[in-house]
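task queued by scheduler; priority normal; single chain, no ligands, no partner chains; default sampling; output format set to structure tokens
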Amino acid sequence: MFKHIISDVFFDLDHTLWDFEKNSALTFKKILVDNGLQVDLPDFLEVYVPTNLAFWKLYREERITKEELRYQRLKTTFDSLGYPVTDPMIHLLAEAYIAHLSSFNHLFPNTVEILEYLKPRYKLHIITNGFQEIQEKKLINSKIHTYFDQIINSEMAGVKKPNPIIFELALKSAEVGPEKAIMIGDSIEADILGAQAVGFHTLHFNAHNDSKHEHCKMIHDLGEIKLYL
């Protein structure tokens, strides 16, 4: 579908290549035990996962700071569970979470296989809203950093997806026009609509069981990228 017009493929990282939910769950399993908190992990994650997504949306929209994101997602989760945790403990957990998150490196099925397939055919890049120091560790520790030419993050751009500035910076860094670029990501708002607004082609990796939509083609497994590229 895109084979003859695309030269550069841009990926989101979390929830697209790097299995954020699995790695996050393993991180919490470690840090909750390490800090002596008797919280049932499935109950904790049931509340935390949607809470985290909601606070990330606020962060994307510049309505909260990085520090507020890291604090409030934990504070809100513990409050919802009715589990009393002091502010110093929340700050300790927030730091421990960041420190250990990139030590777990599960990728989505077929990540390495599709990167191996694409690398000889296209230039590959990352556009991520994640924090620079963490995203670089994730890429290196999961051994996929060598596949990518440009790694653009929101701290480098000064804005977050779906702001057009980050996509324009990515195009400029890769020295490619949007008509020859495709963005592959999990977020309809941040990745798909954000990239389309700048002129990218797009492919939606449906990591969250989103409903069918007309914005672009949708895949449920990274191996399906071969149908389009």
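post-processing summary
- DSSP finds nine helices and six strands in the chain.
- The longest helix spans residues 41-60.
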